[in-house]
Design goal:
By secondary structure, the protein is α+β, with helices and mostly antiparallel strands. The protein has one domain: 2-Layer Sandwich (Conserved Hypothetical Protein Mth637, Chain: A), CATH 3.30.1200.10. It is built from two helices and six strands; from the N terminus they run ββββαββα. Strands 1, 2, 3, 4, 5 and 6 form a six-stranded mixed β-sheet that branches. It is globular.
Length: about 110
Amino acid sequence: MVCPGESCIRVSGNLLYLDIKALPGSSQSQILNLSAGRLRVKIAAAPEDGKANVELCTFLAKVLGCPRKAVSLCSGEKSRLKTLMLPLSVKEKLEALIHHPTEGSE
């Protein structure tokens, strides 16, 4: 898989499943690092009324260069541990962001 010693990405058909740990309420959205098989992502939105989930999907779509509608939440709507579904076409860009997380910062 992508993450040495850890698996944060799964491929199924033409889709990627990305396991993340969201850190809502941050001053800016930013990709941090890998921890316990999940990509840690700071979210610049409060965890209320789904605002952090929308910001998470919007932020990842922007840094991965894909349409917002191509990034969706599969599980973890009310949890910090989430799984997102992304198009397979962003795999290389996602791998680069995982290995060099500061490049995915706003």
